[in-house]
Amino acid sequence: MSVARTVDPDQVGFDPARLARVDEHFGRYVDDGRLAGWQIVVTRRGEIAHSATYGLRDREAGLPVESDTLWRIYSMTKPVTSVAAMMLWEEGRFELTDEISRWLPEFADVRVYQKGSALKPYTVPATEPIRVWHLLTHTAGLTYGFMQTSVVDGIYRAAGYDLLPPADVDLATACTAFGELPLLFQPGSAWGYSVATDVLGRLVEVVSGQSLDAFFAERIFAPLGMTDTRWWADDADAKRLAALYVPDPGTGRAVRYDQIGALAHQPPRLLSGGGGLLSTAADYHRFTQFLLREGDLDGVRLLAPRTVRFMTHNHLPGGRDLGELSVGGFAETVFDGIGFGLGFAVVLDPVPSRSASSVGEYYWGGVASTAFWVDPAEEVTALLFTQLMPSSTHPLRSQLRQLVYSALVG
Description:
Blueprint: H1 16-31, E1 37-44, E2 47-58, E3 63-64, E4 71-72, H2 78-90, E5 111-116, E6 121-125, H3 132-137, H4 151-158, H5 171-180, H6 196-208, H7 212-224, E7 245-247, E8 254-256, H8 258-261, E9 278-279, H9 281-292, E10 296-297, E11 300-301, H10 305-311, H11 322-325, E12 338-340, E13 345-347, E14 362-365, E15 371-375, E16 380-385, H12 396-407
Antiparallel strand pairs: 1-2, 1-16, 2-3, 4-9, 5-6, 7-8, 10-11, 12-13, 13-14, 14-15, 15-16
Helix pairs in contact: 1-12, 2-6
């Protein structure tokens, strides 16, 4: 499968000279060592107007980024899990207002942190049960241990759930643990980036009667022709997998990080609907085109157009934005002027974030600095792949938007 350019940029409204600035700008990140390599794909009206690679997928081995390089997409798994859940919703298997404890009884009697320390927290009963839409919108009150911004994060870490789960834990066991830990806030009252999509993945398993990897493979990847998206890189494809890097605190140069990077070379014990997939630019390009075309790709329909439009509206309580509802901590987005749909951040007003985005653009990214967006108004999609953790190290995403939209002239 290729991600080669399919149309001259000027035929779809891009200025070729201005698009060339994308490669020039991001090339400097590689030339000065801040990134090892990258891959970028920009489309309009379903045609690939720009496709470029630069640098090395594995600096130490001297292997270049190629069109079929495998990338850890981490939280770009979340939209895939959200699509899976909404496919089941379309079948009438649940309603978005249903309590998740109907299928996951470990969440029947959740309690909410109110005060105290991680060692001796004081909790109160939840006044609202966790519902399916809470999982899709990160308003369930769950959190991530690695954020280190609240007492509840500390409780997660003490239970073994930091950046990685305990080595011997599967998805069902993890969800049982999450149900026993206190919530960060009352469900539906705030927004907090969290393990909610992992719980959603478990819900997909229980409702469908399939493991998450089987559901993805049979119901999403095979129909969409996403032949390279998977949970780990076996021996045959190990060399295609890009190495993972972190910034050196002194020099800022990307330094190899095999402590976590090596995990992608073995089957995971926990199938993380929130962050477990590897993919290629070609495969995720097909996923974004499926979204842009409102649920259909090459005659294969997985979702109705109305469902995709519904998913990409702002579902935050009162129509508010993340700036008003976020409890803080890490997220793959800025907050002001940004809402959240069923699995995606959604641009409500681009001005507060000083972005040239369109109203209605939706997107997400991964902790190793991958990112995508879909702009229905301009029929533009964009993909960025690299492997630098954390994604907050450099403003790669905002800079890519700035450069791409500056090249859109027609």
